[in-house]
Structure formats: structure tokens, C-alpha cells
């Protein structure tokens, strides 16, 4: 899978879980310790988050990291 497709799918997985939890981008950003615009960039596949940020997002969303990486590995 090429990088752009990978980042877009990761972003979509994060967005779907965030919406399921009824959180705004700002809510998630606060839980993760980053800016809302950073979450927006990730969800649109325009930012490559570190593994630490992905772990923090999985904890903030209360989902196994495998959920966020679904169909990526």
C-alpha cells in the first residue's frame, strides 16, 4: 500500500472511531495533547502521526490499536 493510501485509511479509521465515541476533533486533541488542526490533518491523511500519537489516540478512544490499524497491515 502506498503511503498516501495508508495515511488516508488510518485517518478514516481514527475519524470513524472518534465519531462513534461522539467526540469532536477538539475533544480528541485535548485527550491526546495536541492541537485540533493536527487531528484534522491526520483524519484527512495529510499528516503522518508518530506511533506514540497513534497509541495515545487508541487509549483516548478506548479502542485496541488494531482497530485504528485495521486493513493497514
3D architecture notes:
The chain has helices at 3-20, 25-32, 36-43, 51-60, 65-68. It is mostly helical and 73 residues long. Helix 2 (25-32) crosses helix 3 (36-43). The longest helix is centred in the N-terminal third of the chain and has 18 residues, at 3-20. The N and C termini lie close together (9 Å). The model has no long low-confidence stretch (mean pLDDT 96).
Write the layout of secondary structure elements.
Layout: H1 3-20, H2 25-32, H3 36-43, H4 51-60, H5 65-68
Helix pairs in contact: 2-3
Task: Give the total of beta strands.
Answer: 0
Low-confidence stretches: none
Report the β-strand fraction as a percent range: under 5%
What is the helix tally?
5
Helix content: 55-70%
Described by the principal axes of the CA atoms, the overall outline is globular
SS-derived structural category? mainly alpha
Q: How is the biggest beta sheet arranged?
A: none
> Taking all residues together, what is the mean pLDDT?
96
Rg from C-alpha positions?
Answer: 11 Å
| Helix/strand order | HHHHH
Give the distance, in angstroms, between the N- and C-terminal Cα atoms: 9 Å
